[in-house]
Write a structure and sequence with these properties.
The complex is a heterodimer. Chain A is α+β, with helices and mostly antiparallel strands. Chain A has helices at about 40-50, 200-205, 275-280, 295-315; strands at about 10-15, 20, 60-65, 70, 75-80, 85-90, 95, 100-105, 110-115, 120-125, 130, 160-165, 185-190, 210-215, 220-225, 240, 245, 255, 265, 270, 290-295. Chain A has two domains: about 5-165, no CATH class; about 185-315, Cyclophilin-like (Cyclophilin), CATH 2.40.100. Chain A is built from four helices and 21 strands. In chain A, the strands form four sheets. A seven-stranded antiparallel sheet of chain A has the order 7-6-9-4-1-12-11, with no helix packed on it. In chain A, strands 13-20-17-18-15-14-21 form a seven-stranded mixed barrel. The two termini of chain A are about 35 Å apart. By secondary structure, chain B is α+β, with helices and mostly antiparallel strands. Chain B has two domains: about 5-75, Gyrase A, domain 2 (2-Layer Sandwich), CATH 3.30.1360.40; about 85-225, Cyclophilin-like (Cyclophilin, Beta Barrel). Chain B has helices at about 25-40, 65-75, 100-110, 115-120, 215-224; strands at about 5, 10-15, 45-50, 55-60, 85-95, 125-130, 135-140, 155-160, 160-165, 170, 175-180, 180-185, 210-215. The longest helix of chain B has 17 residues, at about 25-40. In chain B, about 25% of the residues lie in helices and about 30% in strands. Chain B has a seven-stranded mixed sheet. Chain B has a four-stranded antiparallel sheet with strand order 1-2-4-3, covered by helices on one side. In chain B, strands 8-11 form a two-stranded antiparallel sheet. Classes of the chains: A alpha+beta, B alpha+beta. The interface of A and B includes residues 32, 136, 152, 237 and 241 of A.
Protein backbone atom coordinates (compact mmCIF):
# COMPACT_ATOMS: atom_id res chain seq x y z
CA UNK A 1 0.00 0.00 0.00
CA UNK A 2 1.36 3.42 -0.88
CA UNK A 3 1.90 5.51 2.22
CA UNK A 4 -0.34 8.33 0.97
CA UNK A 5 -3.28 5.88 0.86
CA UNK A 6 -2.75 4.79 4.44
CA UNK A 7 -4.79 5.99 7.38
CA UNK A 8 -3.05 5.37 10.67
CA UNK A 9 -2.07 6.59 14.10
CA UNK A 10 1.52 6.74 15.22
CA UNK A 11 1.99 6.20 18.95
CA UNK A 12 4.07 9.04 20.44
CA UNK A 13 3.53 7.73 23.99
CA UNK A 14 1.98 4.33 24.67
CA UNK A 15 0.24 5.05 27.98
CA UNK A 16 -0.31 2.32 30.55
CA UNK A 17 -1.49 -1.15 29.56
CA UNK A 18 -2.82 0.06 26.23
CA UNK A 19 -4.32 -2.83 24.24
CA UNK A 20 -6.97 -3.73 21.67
CA UNK A 21 -10.11 -5.16 23.23
CA UNK A 22 -13.51 -6.34 22.06
CA UNK A 23 -16.08 -8.56 23.80
CA UNK A 24 -13.47 -11.29 24.28
CA UNK A 25 -13.34 -15.01 23.54
CA UNK A 26 -15.67 -17.73 24.79
CA UNK A 27 -15.42 -21.44 25.44
CA UNK A 28 -11.65 -21.67 25.99
CA UNK A 29 -11.46 -21.89 29.80
CA UNK A 30 -10.85 -25.64 29.52
CA UNK A 31 -7.51 -25.01 27.80
CA UNK A 32 -6.59 -22.16 30.13
CA UNK A 33 -7.64 -19.12 28.11
CA UNK A 34 -9.87 -16.58 29.91
CA UNK A 35 -12.58 -14.37 28.39
CA UNK A 36 -10.44 -11.22 28.27
CA UNK A 37 -12.31 -8.45 26.43
CA UNK A 38 -12.99 -4.87 27.51
CA UNK A 39 -12.92 -4.66 31.32
CA UNK A 40 -15.82 -2.18 31.45
CA UNK A 41 -18.39 -3.57 29.01
CA UNK A 42 -20.78 -0.64 29.37
CA UNK A 43 -18.20 1.91 28.27
CA UNK A 44 -17.17 -0.43 25.45
CA UNK A 45 -20.78 -0.66 24.25
CA UNK A 46 -21.38 3.09 24.56
CA UNK A 47 -18.25 3.86 22.54
CA UNK A 48 -19.18 1.63 19.61
CA UNK A 49 -22.74 2.99 19.69
CA UNK A 50 -21.51 6.61 19.65
CA UNK A 51 -19.28 5.81 16.68
CA UNK A 52 -22.00 3.75 14.92
CA UNK A 53 -19.66 0.78 14.65
CA UNK A 54 -20.63 -2.89 14.91
CA UNK A 55 -21.33 -3.80 18.53
CA UNK A 56 -18.19 -5.98 18.75
CA UNK A 57 -15.76 -3.66 16.91
CA UNK A 58 -12.24 -3.44 18.32
CA UNK A 59 -11.43 -0.47 20.57
CA UNK A 60 -8.28 0.68 22.32
CA UNK A 61 -8.34 0.23 26.09
CA UNK A 62 -5.96 2.04 28.45
CA UNK A 63 -5.52 2.21 32.22
CA UNK A 64 -4.82 5.40 34.24
CA UNK A 65 -2.95 7.08 31.38
CA UNK A 66 -3.85 6.72 27.71
CA UNK A 67 -1.70 6.96 24.61
CA UNK A 68 -0.58 10.11 22.81
CA UNK A 69 -1.47 9.53 19.15
CA UNK A 70 -0.59 11.40 15.95
CA UNK A 71 -2.93 10.86 13.02
CA UNK A 72 -2.00 10.50 9.36
CA UNK A 73 -4.64 10.12 6.65
CA UNK A 74 -7.96 11.44 5.45
CA UNK A 75 -10.51 13.06 7.77
CA UNK A 76 -11.76 10.79 10.54
CA UNK A 77 -13.78 11.03 13.76
CA UNK A 78 -12.80 9.66 17.13
CA UNK A 79 -14.50 9.32 20.48
CA UNK A 80 -13.42 8.42 24.03
CA UNK A 81 -15.53 6.75 26.72
CA UNK A 82 -14.93 6.56 30.45
CA UNK A 83 -14.04 9.38 32.80
CA UNK A 84 -11.03 10.66 30.84
CA UNK A 85 -9.05 13.92 30.44
CA UNK A 86 -7.59 14.42 26.98
CA UNK A 87 -6.34 17.14 24.66
CA UNK A 88 -6.79 17.52 20.93
CA UNK A 89 -3.85 19.18 19.25
CA UNK A 90 -4.48 20.69 15.80
CA UNK A 91 -2.92 23.42 13.65
CA UNK A 92 -5.52 25.82 15.13
CA UNK A 93 -4.47 25.12 18.69
CA UNK A 94 -5.04 22.85 21.65
CA UNK A 95 -8.46 22.12 23.11
CA UNK A 96 -9.66 19.97 26.01
CA UNK A 97 -11.93 17.18 24.87
CA UNK A 98 -14.96 15.67 26.56
CA UNK A 99 -15.73 11.99 26.83
CA UNK A 100 -18.79 10.69 24.95
CA UNK A 101 -18.40 13.32 22.20
CA UNK A 102 -17.09 12.74 18.68
CA UNK A 103 -14.30 14.93 17.30
CA UNK A 104 -12.88 15.40 13.81
CA UNK A 105 -9.21 14.62 13.17
CA UNK A 106 -7.28 15.83 10.13
CA UNK A 107 -3.94 14.70 8.81
CA UNK A 108 -1.24 15.64 11.36
CA UNK A 109 -3.63 16.20 14.32
CA UNK A 110 -2.87 14.63 17.68
CA UNK A 111 -4.85 13.22 20.60
CA UNK A 112 -3.10 13.24 23.96
CA UNK A 113 -5.00 11.10 26.46
CA UNK A 114 -3.67 12.44 29.75
CA UNK A 115 -5.46 10.43 32.42
CA UNK A 116 -8.52 8.69 33.67
CA UNK A 117 -10.18 10.56 36.55
CA UNK A 118 -11.10 8.66 39.74
CA UNK A 119 -11.36 5.55 37.57
CA UNK A 120 -9.06 3.02 35.93
CA UNK A 121 -10.10 2.24 32.35
CA UNK A 122 -10.88 4.40 29.34
CA UNK A 123 -11.62 3.56 25.70
CA UNK A 124 -10.69 5.14 22.40
CA UNK A 125 -11.98 4.38 18.92
CA UNK A 126 -12.81 5.85 15.52
CA UNK A 127 -15.70 5.77 13.03
CA UNK A 128 -14.20 2.80 11.30
CA UNK A 129 -12.18 -0.32 11.86
CA UNK A 130 -8.66 -0.90 13.13
CA UNK A 131 -6.59 -3.44 11.20
CA UNK A 132 -6.37 -6.24 13.75
CA UNK A 133 -5.85 -10.01 13.62
CA UNK A 134 -8.36 -12.32 15.27
CA UNK A 135 -7.43 -15.16 17.59
CA UNK A 136 -10.25 -17.55 18.51
CA UNK A 137 -12.76 -15.05 17.19
CA UNK A 138 -11.48 -12.08 19.19
CA UNK A 139 -8.89 -9.34 18.81
CA UNK A 140 -8.53 -8.85 22.58
CA UNK A 141 -4.92 -8.75 23.69
CA UNK A 142 -4.12 -11.02 26.63
CA UNK A 143 -0.60 -9.98 27.57
CA UNK A 144 -0.17 -12.76 30.12
CA UNK A 145 -0.65 -15.56 27.56
CA UNK A 146 0.59 -13.38 24.69
CA UNK A 147 -2.55 -13.93 22.68
CA UNK A 148 -3.92 -11.37 20.26
CA UNK A 149 -2.68 -8.76 17.77
CA UNK A 150 0.74 -7.09 18.29
CA UNK A 151 2.01 -10.57 19.29
CA UNK A 152 -0.15 -10.39 22.39
CA UNK A 153 1.81 -7.46 23.80
CA UNK A 154 0.62 -4.09 25.03
CA UNK A 155 1.23 -1.10 22.77
CA UNK A 156 4.63 0.53 22.70
CA UNK A 157 6.03 3.84 21.45
CA UNK A 158 6.34 4.22 17.65
CA UNK A 159 3.85 1.46 16.93
CA UNK A 160 1.56 2.31 14.01
CA UNK A 161 -2.15 1.60 14.32
CA UNK A 162 -3.68 0.87 10.93
CA UNK A 163 -7.21 1.87 10.02
CA UNK A 164 -8.60 -0.42 7.33
CA UNK A 165 -12.05 1.07 6.93
CA UNK A 166 -13.69 4.46 7.52
CA UNK A 167 -17.47 4.78 7.74
CA UNK A 168 -18.36 7.74 5.51
CA UNK A 169 -22.07 7.75 6.36
CA UNK A 170 -21.19 8.56 9.97
CA UNK A 171 -23.22 11.19 11.89
CA UNK A 172 -21.49 13.09 14.67
CA UNK A 173 -23.27 12.24 17.94
CA UNK A 174 -22.88 12.69 21.67
CA UNK A 175 -24.15 11.50 25.00
CA UNK A 176 -24.56 13.45 28.22
CA UNK A 177 -23.30 10.97 30.76
CA UNK A 178 -21.21 11.41 33.87
CA UNK A 179 -20.56 7.76 34.50
CA UNK A 180 -21.78 5.65 37.34
CA UNK A 181 -19.84 4.68 40.44
CA UNK A 182 -20.50 2.52 43.47
CA UNK A 183 -18.85 1.90 46.81
CA UNK A 184 -20.84 -1.15 47.85
CA UNK A 185 -20.12 -4.23 45.78
CA UNK A 186 -22.88 -6.80 45.89
CA UNK A 187 -21.81 -10.43 46.08
CA UNK A 188 -23.32 -13.91 46.26
CA UNK A 189 -21.88 -16.16 48.96
CA UNK A 190 -19.36 -18.61 47.55
CA UNK A 191 -19.08 -22.39 47.46
CA UNK A 192 -16.55 -22.35 50.32
CA UNK A 193 -18.27 -19.71 52.47
CA UNK A 194 -18.34 -22.11 55.44
CA UNK A 195 -14.52 -22.47 55.36
CA UNK A 196 -14.36 -19.20 57.28
CA UNK A 197 -15.02 -18.45 60.95
CA UNK A 198 -18.30 -16.80 61.85
CA UNK A 199 -16.53 -13.66 63.03
CA UNK A 200 -14.63 -13.48 59.74
CA UNK A 201 -17.86 -13.95 57.77
CA UNK A 202 -19.28 -11.00 59.71
CA UNK A 203 -16.19 -8.90 59.13
CA UNK A 204 -16.32 -9.66 55.41
CA UNK A 205 -19.71 -7.98 55.16
CA UNK A 206 -19.34 -5.28 57.84
CA UNK A 207 -15.86 -3.86 57.45
CA UNK A 208 -14.31 -2.19 54.44
CA UNK A 209 -11.42 -3.41 52.30
CA UNK A 210 -8.83 -1.33 50.52
CA UNK A 211 -7.89 -2.00 46.89
CA UNK A 212 -4.11 -2.41 46.70
CA UNK A 213 -1.72 -1.49 43.91
CA UNK A 214 -1.42 -5.19 43.08
CA UNK A 215 -4.39 -4.93 40.75
CA UNK A 216 -4.48 -5.41 36.99
CA UNK A 217 -6.56 -7.08 34.28
CA UNK A 218 -6.01 -10.47 35.95
CA UNK A 219 -7.13 -9.65 39.44
CA UNK A 220 -7.61 -7.18 42.25
CA UNK A 221 -5.91 -7.74 45.60
CA UNK A 222 -7.56 -6.26 48.66
CA UNK A 223 -6.39 -5.62 52.17
CA UNK A 224 -8.40 -5.24 55.33
CA UNK A 225 -9.34 -7.45 58.24
CA UNK A 226 -7.74 -10.90 57.88
CA UNK A 227 -10.28 -13.55 56.96
CA UNK A 228 -9.71 -16.58 59.15
CA UNK A 229 -9.91 -19.99 57.50
CA UNK A 230 -11.05 -22.72 59.91
CA UNK A 231 -11.11 -25.66 57.46
CA UNK A 232 -8.23 -25.69 54.97
CA UNK A 233 -6.34 -22.80 53.31
CA UNK A 234 -6.40 -24.75 50.04
CA UNK A 235 -9.04 -26.60 48.07
CA UNK A 236 -8.47 -29.10 45.26
CA UNK A 237 -7.82 -26.83 42.28
CA UNK A 238 -10.97 -26.10 40.33
CA UNK A 239 -12.37 -23.67 37.78
CA UNK A 240 -12.71 -19.95 38.46
CA UNK A 241 -15.03 -17.39 36.96
CA UNK A 242 -14.87 -13.63 36.57
CA UNK A 243 -15.72 -11.90 39.86
CA UNK A 244 -14.89 -14.82 42.15
CA UNK A 245 -13.35 -13.67 45.45
CA UNK A 246 -10.76 -16.13 46.75
CA UNK A 247 -9.11 -15.84 50.16
CA UNK A 248 -5.36 -16.42 50.01
CA UNK A 249 -3.43 -18.38 52.66
CA UNK A 250 -2.54 -15.01 54.21
CA UNK A 251 -6.26 -14.27 54.71
CA UNK A 252 -6.57 -11.55 52.08
CA UNK A 253 -9.29 -11.38 49.41
CA UNK A 254 -8.35 -11.44 45.74
CA UNK A 255 -11.00 -10.82 43.07
CA UNK A 256 -10.63 -12.55 39.70
CA UNK A 257 -10.94 -10.14 36.76
CA UNK A 258 -11.20 -10.57 32.97
CA UNK A 259 -7.71 -12.06 32.28
CA UNK A 260 -7.72 -14.32 35.36
CA UNK A 261 -6.09 -17.73 35.58
CA UNK A 262 -8.79 -20.29 34.77
CA UNK A 263 -8.02 -22.64 37.68
CA UNK A 264 -7.32 -21.86 41.30
CA UNK A 265 -6.81 -23.58 44.63
CA UNK A 266 -7.89 -20.98 47.18
CA UNK A 267 -11.33 -21.20 48.81
CA UNK A 268 -14.05 -19.00 47.34
CA UNK A 269 -15.81 -16.81 49.86
CA UNK A 270 -18.10 -15.01 47.39
CA UNK A 271 -18.64 -13.88 43.79
CA UNK A 272 -19.33 -10.32 42.62
CA UNK A 273 -22.71 -10.09 40.88
CA UNK A 274 -22.64 -9.44 37.12
CA UNK A 275 -24.50 -6.12 37.50
CA UNK A 276 -21.65 -4.64 39.57
CA UNK A 277 -18.65 -5.91 37.58
CA UNK A 278 -18.17 -2.90 35.24
CA UNK A 279 -18.15 -0.51 38.19
CA UNK A 280 -15.94 -2.75 40.33
CA UNK A 281 -13.10 -2.74 37.77
CA UNK A 282 -13.17 1.06 37.63
CA UNK A 283 -12.30 1.42 41.35
CA UNK A 284 -8.77 2.71 41.79
CA UNK A 285 -6.09 1.37 44.14
CA UNK A 286 -6.46 3.08 47.50
CA UNK A 287 -10.29 3.12 47.37
CA UNK A 288 -12.28 1.36 50.03
CA UNK A 289 -15.07 -1.04 49.22
CA UNK A 290 -17.71 -2.84 51.23
CA UNK A 291 -19.34 -6.10 50.26
CA UNK A 292 -23.11 -6.51 50.48
CA UNK A 293 -24.85 -9.88 50.50
CA UNK A 294 -27.19 -10.50 47.53
CA UNK A 295 -29.39 -13.47 46.69
CA UNK A 296 -29.16 -15.23 43.33
CA UNK A 297 -32.66 -14.05 42.41
CA UNK A 298 -31.78 -10.44 43.22
CA UNK A 299 -28.57 -10.71 41.21
CA UNK A 300 -30.45 -11.98 38.14
CA UNK A 301 -32.94 -9.10 38.40
CA UNK A 302 -30.23 -6.50 39.04
CA UNK A 303 -28.39 -7.64 35.93
CA UNK A 304 -31.51 -7.17 33.80
CA UNK A 305 -31.95 -3.68 35.26
CA UNK A 306 -28.31 -2.83 34.60
CA UNK A 307 -28.66 -3.94 30.97
CA UNK A 308 -31.86 -1.87 30.61
CA UNK A 309 -29.98 1.13 31.98
CA UNK A 310 -27.21 0.63 29.41
CA UNK A 311 -29.76 0.32 26.59
CA UNK A 312 -31.47 3.44 27.88
CA UNK A 313 -28.15 5.33 27.69
CA UNK A 314 -27.62 4.09 24.14
CA UNK A 315 -31.08 5.41 23.18
CA UNK A 316 -30.10 8.84 24.58
CA UNK A 317 -27.21 9.19 22.13
CA UNK A 318 -28.06 12.13 19.87
CA UNK B 1 -22.74 -39.00 38.29
CA UNK B 2 -23.13 -35.33 39.23
CA UNK B 3 -23.74 -35.31 42.99
CA UNK B 4 -24.97 -31.75 43.29
CA UNK B 5 -25.31 -28.57 41.23
CA UNK B 6 -24.82 -25.21 42.97
CA UNK B 7 -24.46 -21.68 41.61
CA UNK B 8 -21.05 -20.01 41.45
CA UNK B 9 -22.06 -16.36 41.39
CA UNK B 10 -25.02 -15.48 39.14
CA UNK B 11 -23.68 -16.76 35.81
CA UNK B 12 -22.17 -20.20 36.39
CA UNK B 13 -23.24 -23.70 37.43
CA UNK B 14 -20.95 -25.49 39.87
CA UNK B 15 -21.31 -29.24 39.21
CA UNK B 16 -19.87 -31.32 42.03
CA UNK B 17 -18.75 -34.88 41.23
CA UNK B 18 -17.30 -35.63 44.69
CA UNK B 19 -14.46 -34.57 46.94
CA UNK B 20 -11.79 -37.20 46.16
CA UNK B 21 -9.19 -36.82 43.45
CA UNK B 22 -8.93 -39.98 41.40
CA UNK B 23 -9.05 -40.98 37.77
CA UNK B 24 -12.51 -42.54 38.05
CA UNK B 25 -14.23 -39.37 39.27
CA UNK B 26 -12.14 -37.22 36.92
CA UNK B 27 -13.06 -39.42 33.93
CA UNK B 28 -16.73 -38.74 34.70
CA UNK B 29 -16.06 -35.00 34.75
CA UNK B 30 -14.26 -35.26 31.41
CA UNK B 31 -17.10 -37.32 29.87
CA UNK B 32 -19.65 -34.67 30.87
CA UNK B 33 -17.35 -31.96 29.61
CA UNK B 34 -16.97 -33.50 26.12
CA UNK B 35 -20.67 -34.41 25.97
CA UNK B 36 -21.91 -30.89 26.83
CA UNK B 37 -19.29 -29.34 24.55
CA UNK B 38 -20.62 -31.41 21.67
CA UNK B 39 -24.22 -30.34 22.35
CA UNK B 40 -23.08 -26.80 21.56
CA UNK B 41 -25.85 -25.26 23.68
CA UNK B 42 -26.61 -21.65 22.92
CA UNK B 43 -25.61 -19.26 25.70
CA UNK B 44 -22.97 -21.53 27.29
CA UNK B 45 -19.88 -19.35 27.40
CA UNK B 46 -17.36 -21.67 29.07
CA UNK B 47 -16.89 -25.17 30.44
CA UNK B 48 -14.13 -25.73 33.02
CA UNK B 49 -13.48 -29.33 34.01
CA UNK B 50 -11.15 -29.96 36.96
CA UNK B 51 -10.31 -32.93 39.21
CA UNK B 52 -13.84 -33.40 40.52
CA UNK B 53 -15.85 -30.36 39.46
CA UNK B 54 -17.26 -29.00 36.22
CA UNK B 55 -18.07 -25.30 36.03
CA UNK B 56 -20.49 -24.19 33.32
CA UNK B 57 -20.49 -20.45 32.65
CA UNK B 58 -23.45 -18.98 30.80
CA UNK B 59 -24.78 -15.78 29.30
CA UNK B 60 -27.23 -14.24 31.77
CA UNK B 61 -29.15 -12.75 28.86
CA UNK B 62 -30.02 -16.25 27.67
CA UNK B 63 -30.18 -18.53 30.72
CA UNK B 64 -31.12 -18.31 34.36
CA UNK B 65 -29.62 -20.64 36.97
CA UNK B 66 -32.71 -22.78 37.51
CA UNK B 67 -33.56 -23.35 33.85
CA UNK B 68 -30.02 -24.30 32.89
CA UNK B 69 -29.61 -26.49 35.98
CA UNK B 70 -32.68 -28.49 34.90
CA UNK B 71 -31.23 -28.91 31.41
CA UNK B 72 -27.92 -30.22 32.73
CA UNK B 73 -29.61 -32.53 35.24
CA UNK B 74 -31.56 -34.12 32.40
CA UNK B 75 -28.44 -35.03 30.47
CA UNK B 76 -27.84 -38.75 30.47
CA UNK B 77 -24.36 -40.12 29.98
CA UNK B 78 -23.67 -43.80 29.66
CA UNK B 79 -21.14 -44.94 32.26
CA UNK B 80 -19.33 -47.08 29.70
CA UNK B 81 -18.79 -44.23 27.23
CA UNK B 82 -15.13 -44.59 26.33
CA UNK B 83 -12.81 -41.62 26.61
CA UNK B 84 -10.53 -40.89 23.71
CA UNK B 85 -6.97 -41.12 25.01
CA UNK B 86 -3.64 -40.26 23.44
CA UNK B 87 -0.19 -41.24 24.64
CA UNK B 88 2.16 -38.27 24.36
CA UNK B 89 5.92 -38.45 24.92
CA UNK B 90 7.62 -35.33 26.24
CA UNK B 91 11.40 -34.81 26.51
CA UNK B 92 12.74 -33.27 29.74
CA UNK B 93 16.26 -32.05 30.51
CA UNK B 94 17.22 -32.16 34.19
CA UNK B 95 20.51 -30.29 33.84
CA UNK B 96 21.47 -28.17 36.88
CA UNK B 97 20.31 -24.95 35.22
CA UNK B 98 16.81 -26.38 34.81
CA UNK B 99 16.31 -28.47 37.98
CA UNK B 100 15.71 -25.41 40.12
CA UNK B 101 14.43 -27.26 43.19
CA UNK B 102 16.24 -30.58 43.05
CA UNK B 103 18.16 -29.88 46.29
CA UNK B 104 15.00 -28.92 48.13
CA UNK B 105 13.27 -32.08 46.87
CA UNK B 106 16.27 -34.22 47.92
CA UNK B 107 16.11 -32.74 51.43
CA UNK B 108 12.34 -33.02 51.82
CA UNK B 109 12.01 -36.54 50.41
CA UNK B 110 15.33 -37.74 51.84
CA UNK B 111 16.18 -39.34 48.51
CA UNK B 112 19.20 -38.89 46.21
CA UNK B 113 18.54 -36.87 43.06
CA UNK B 114 19.22 -39.84 40.76
CA UNK B 115 16.60 -41.93 42.61
CA UNK B 116 14.10 -39.05 42.44
CA UNK B 117 14.55 -38.68 38.70
CA UNK B 118 14.50 -42.43 38.11
CA UNK B 119 11.16 -42.67 39.93
CA UNK B 120 9.82 -39.62 38.11
CA UNK B 121 10.65 -40.95 34.65
CA UNK B 122 9.51 -44.54 35.32
CA UNK B 123 5.78 -43.70 35.37
CA UNK B 124 3.12 -42.64 32.91
CA UNK B 125 0.91 -39.77 34.04
CA UNK B 126 -2.78 -39.12 33.46
CA UNK B 127 -3.96 -35.62 32.48
CA UNK B 128 -6.72 -34.54 34.87
CA UNK B 129 -7.21 -31.07 33.45
CA UNK B 130 -5.56 -28.18 31.65
CA UNK B 131 -5.62 -24.54 32.58
CA UNK B 132 -4.59 -21.86 35.04
CA UNK B 133 -2.54 -20.54 32.12
CA UNK B 134 -3.06 -21.58 28.51
CA UNK B 135 -2.25 -25.25 27.94
CA UNK B 136 -0.83 -26.11 31.40
CA UNK B 137 -1.58 -29.80 32.09
CA UNK B 138 -2.25 -31.10 35.62
CA UNK B 139 -0.90 -34.67 35.67
CA UNK B 140 -0.93 -37.52 38.17
CA UNK B 141 -0.27 -39.54 40.13
CA UNK B 142 3.22 -39.48 41.59
CA UNK B 143 4.41 -42.38 43.78
CA UNK B 144 3.68 -41.94 47.49
CA UNK B 145 7.36 -41.36 48.39
CA UNK B 146 7.63 -38.61 45.74
CA UNK B 147 5.01 -36.34 47.29
CA UNK B 148 5.84 -32.99 48.90
CA UNK B 149 4.24 -29.60 49.37
CA UNK B 150 4.73 -26.55 47.19
CA UNK B 151 7.39 -23.95 47.90
CA UNK B 152 6.67 -21.85 51.00
CA UNK B 153 7.12 -18.72 48.92
CA UNK B 154 6.05 -19.10 45.29
CA UNK B 155 8.43 -17.91 42.56
CA UNK B 156 7.43 -14.65 40.91
CA UNK B 157 8.54 -16.12 37.57
CA UNK B 158 8.79 -19.81 36.74
CA UNK B 159 10.60 -20.26 33.41
CA UNK B 160 8.52 -21.45 30.45
CA UNK B 161 8.83 -25.22 29.94
CA UNK B 162 9.55 -25.99 33.61
CA UNK B 163 8.36 -29.39 34.82
CA UNK B 164 7.24 -29.33 38.45
CA UNK B 165 5.83 -31.58 41.14
CA UNK B 166 3.66 -31.06 44.20
CA UNK B 167 1.57 -33.50 46.25
CA UNK B 168 0.36 -36.28 43.92
CA UNK B 169 0.66 -34.11 40.82
CA UNK B 170 3.11 -32.88 38.21
CA UNK B 171 2.71 -30.17 35.58
CA UNK B 172 4.44 -28.31 32.78
CA UNK B 173 4.62 -24.51 32.81
CA UNK B 174 3.41 -23.70 29.29
CA UNK B 175 4.22 -20.01 29.86
CA UNK B 176 6.39 -18.01 32.19
CA UNK B 177 4.13 -17.38 35.16
CA UNK B 178 4.24 -17.10 38.96
CA UNK B 179 4.12 -20.52 40.61
CA UNK B 180 5.07 -22.62 43.59
CA UNK B 181 5.69 -26.14 42.29
CA UNK B 182 9.03 -27.91 42.83
CA UNK B 183 10.89 -27.71 39.52
CA UNK B 184 12.78 -30.86 38.41
CA UNK B 185 13.60 -29.99 34.80
CA UNK B 186 12.57 -28.24 31.61
CA UNK B 187 11.13 -29.37 28.29
CA UNK B 188 12.13 -27.78 24.98
CA UNK B 189 8.79 -28.89 23.53
CA UNK B 190 6.10 -26.28 22.88
CA UNK B 191 3.12 -27.13 25.12
CA UNK B 192 0.75 -24.50 23.75
CA UNK B 193 0.70 -23.46 20.09
CA UNK B 194 -1.13 -20.17 19.54
CA UNK B 195 -0.95 -20.62 15.75
CA UNK B 196 -2.89 -23.90 15.92
CA UNK B 197 -6.30 -22.50 16.77
CA UNK B 198 -8.26 -25.75 16.36
CA UNK B 199 -6.12 -27.68 18.84
CA UNK B 200 -3.51 -25.48 20.55
CA UNK B 201 -2.94 -27.85 23.49
CA UNK B 202 -0.28 -30.55 23.24
CA UNK B 203 -1.97 -32.35 26.13
CA UNK B 204 -5.71 -32.61 26.73
CA UNK B 205 -7.75 -33.98 29.66
CA UNK B 206 -7.78 -37.79 29.57
CA UNK B 207 -4.43 -38.10 27.74
CA UNK B 208 -1.46 -40.05 29.09
CA UNK B 209 2.01 -38.52 29.32
CA UNK B 210 5.33 -40.28 29.21
CA UNK B 211 8.31 -38.09 30.12
CA UNK B 212 11.74 -39.15 28.85
CA UNK B 213 15.08 -37.72 29.86
CA UNK B 214 17.35 -35.86 27.44
CA UNK B 215 20.82 -34.31 27.68
CA UNK B 216 21.54 -30.59 27.44
CA UNK B 217 22.87 -31.13 23.88
CA UNK B 218 19.67 -32.85 22.85
CA UNK B 219 17.68 -30.06 24.54
CA UNK B 220 19.51 -27.39 22.57
CA UNK B 221 19.10 -29.42 19.39
CA UNK B 222 15.31 -29.58 19.78
CA UNK B 223 15.14 -25.91 20.81
CA UNK B 224 16.92 -24.89 17.60
Amino acid sequence: MKSKDRNYFKILRAGINTTYQDLGRNNLYHIGIPFSGAMDKRNFQLLNSLLQNDYNSPVIEFAYQGPHLKYFGKDIFFCISGNVSFKIITKEGVIDGNSYQCYLLKNGDEVDIRSTNKSVYGYFSINGTFGVDYYWGSCSINTQAQIGPNNGNKFSKDLEIEIIDINNSFNKRKLDYLGSTIENIRVIKGTNYDYFSESSQNKFFKESFKITKLSDRMGMRLEGPKIENIVDPNIKSEGLVKGVIQITSAGDPIIMLSDHGTIGGYPKIATVISADYDRLVQLTPGSNIKFKDASLEDAETLYKLYQMETNNLISQIK
Amino acid sequence: MIKNILNLGDAALYCDFGSDVNQEINSNVIKYFYHIKKLNLKGITNLTPSYNKLIISYDLNIHSFLSLKKKIENIEIKENNKLEKNLIEIPVCCDNDFALDIERVENKLKLKSEIILEKFFSKNYFCYMTGFVAGMPFLGDLDQEMRLKRLETPRVKVPKGSVGITEQFCNIYSFETPGGWNILGNTPQNIFDTSNQSNPNLVNPGDTIKFYRITLDQYNEIKR
